[in-house]
Structure formats: structure tokens, C-alpha cells
Amino acid sequence: MKREVITTSDGSTTIHFPELNEHYHSKHGAINEAKHVFIKNGFEYILTSKKLDELKILEIGFGTGLNAFITFLEGIRADQKIKYVGVEAYPVLANEIKLLNYVKELEATDHQTIFEDLHQKPWENLHAISDTFLLLKREQLFEDIEDENSYDLIYFDAFGARVQPSLWEVSIFKKMYNALLPNGILVTYAAKGSVRRAMQEVGFMVERLPGPPGKREMLRASKIL
Fold first, then answer.
1. FRET label pair with 89: which of 72, 122, 136, 142, CA 20 to 30 Å apart?
2. How far is CA 51 from the centre of its chain?
């Protein structure tokens, strides 16, 4: 299937699948979406509610590494230790990674090698990307995730339900619920009613929040125990 790197509305790049009319990130702004959905309403939100010696994050759809890289940068600003687990069924190709402009657009040239390490470090092993950021990448189908009581925060960044509806069903969100620690949260750009109802069916308390550019709403789900 054809893949192409395109520039989104905020100047940052993403990968586009023309045949599916689907993108790894919002065409209205890859960086803007990541910061709004995953950082503001996930990372920053959870750190305002409790102090954690180590924030444990699971990303569903490691993809371009954008969410991981921004989280690394925000971790430095917040003086927060992070263990980051990224699950990806189909890793991005090396030649595509070279075309991504996140380091430049985030004005993070001092951390160019960090962005490269996020992609170049071998899969299935835990790596110390820095003194405060541990990374484990798993090449795995989302349906095969079996983690339990392991994470404070989940970034749910799978392809949309229009393209991959099976990733937005009750069975997947049950796995997400099980993977979270008590009072952990999941954030996603999605806001469909069917997605919200699937989350609620497995026990999540779900909030509708203002969405990133180009979307009216997004969802945040909490495991209240």
C-alpha cells in the first residue's frame, strides 16, 4: 500500500495512506494534536493529580515516535522520570523516519540523537534513552496485549475506527482497562459515541473534552478504583 510523508497544517509532518485516506496524525497539525490530546489532557493532567516517582505510559500505536519524543521533552520540563512502552504492529520504515521534521518543528535540535534513538534502539528490549526516560518498544498486535495493572497513562493513538473498527471495540478497551493501574487514565483523539459506549461498558468513567484543531471533541477515560 502506498505511503507518503506529507506536511500538516501546523508545519509538522505525518505519514499518509492515500488509498485509505488515513494519516498517522491529524492533517490539521500533527504536533498540535499530540500536544493537545496526549500531553495537555493526559501527561499534564495526571501529574496535576498526583506525584509519581516514575510515570508509566503505554502508547497504542508508537508509529512515528512523535508522542514519545514530545513526552520525553515534557518529562525534562516537569523533572519527571518516565517508563514508556510503545506498541506497534507495523513499525515505520527507516527512510520515512528521515523525512519527519519533528526535531526542527519542536525546536529541539539539542535532542536530535534522542529522536534517532527512539527509532534505532532494538525492539523488545528496555533501553535507557536518558537518565530519566526508559523506553520499551514492542512489535505486537494490539489484540495480543495482556498487560495488567501496569500503567498510569495510556495514549490510545490507533488508526481511526473508519479504517480499523476492530481496534475500537469492547474487547480492546477491556485490555486497556486491565492494563491500567487503579485511577489510571486513557486519552484518545476519538470521540465517536460507539467508542465512548465501549469504554463505559468495560468500566471506564468517560469524559468528553474539547478536541484538537479540526475536531470538536476527544475522550478521556478513567479507571476509578
1. 72
2. 21
C-alpha 186: how far from chain center? 10
Contacts of 40 (CB under 8 A, 6+ apart): none
Who's near 55: CB < 8 A, 6+ residues apart?
Answer: 43, 46, 47, 75, 80, 81, 82, 83, 152, 153
- Torsion angle of the four alpha carbons 116, 211, 55, 59, in this order, in degrees rounded to the nearest 10: -50
Determine the pLDDT at residue 223. 97
Q: What is the pLDDT of residue 65?
A: 97
Q: Indicate the DSSP class of residue 159.
A: P
**In the chain, which stretches have pLDDT less than 70?**
none
**Dist. CA 86–CA 73, nearest whole Å:** 16
pLDDT tens, position by position, 153-164: 999 999 888 889
Q: Looking at the DSSP assignment, which residues form a beta bridge with residue 62?
A: none
